[in-house]
Write a structure and sequence with these properties.
Layout: H1 3-10, H2 14-22, E1 29-30, E2 36-37, H3 40-54, H4 59-70, H5 76-110, H6 120-126
Antiparallel strand pairs: 1-2
Length: 129
């Protein structure tokens, strides 16, 4: 199938599919006319990549997961290790976001929000505070 059909079946834009091919995550066959020729296993890989990216895995982590998925001799511990690392990263980011939320909430609460020019939000951002 052509890239348009692969795009429709995978739910990924053609540009993303080309990118995945450029970085070596996917290698479709080539038709006699030189156009990419995607198979259903290629579409399955594209869906796999889309779901992996949706879970927050980086391109390199997706590369590792895809290699493990294709390796029928893999140890599930290898997959779990990657997922646990991602989970720890997400937990760290949640903590950072909560800290940002607390700081910004404090700044908003202390800004008068009126016609006066003084603003603790801008003072903090500029380093004057």
């Amino acid at each position: 199938m052509n890239i348009g059909n692969a795009s429709d079946k995978s739910g990924l834009p053609a540009k993303t599919i080309r990118y995945y091919e450029d970085i070596g995550l996917l290698k479709p066959d080539r038709a006699e006319n030189g156009y990419r020729d995607y198979s259903m296993p290629d579409v399955h890989k594209l869906r796999f990549l889309q779901r992996s990216r949706g879970l927050g895995f980086s391109v390199e982590e997706c590369r590792q997961l895809l290699a493990l998925y294709e390796d029928k001799e893999r140890a599930s511990a290898d997959v779990k290790s990657i997922a646990q690392s991602k989970l720890q990263e997400i937990a760290r980011k949640i903590i950072e976001l909560r800290e940002l939320q607390h700081t910004l909430k404090h700044l908003v609460a202390h800004c008068h929000g009126d016609q006066r020019p003084d603003c603790p939000i801008l003072e903090t951002i500029s380093g004057e505070n």
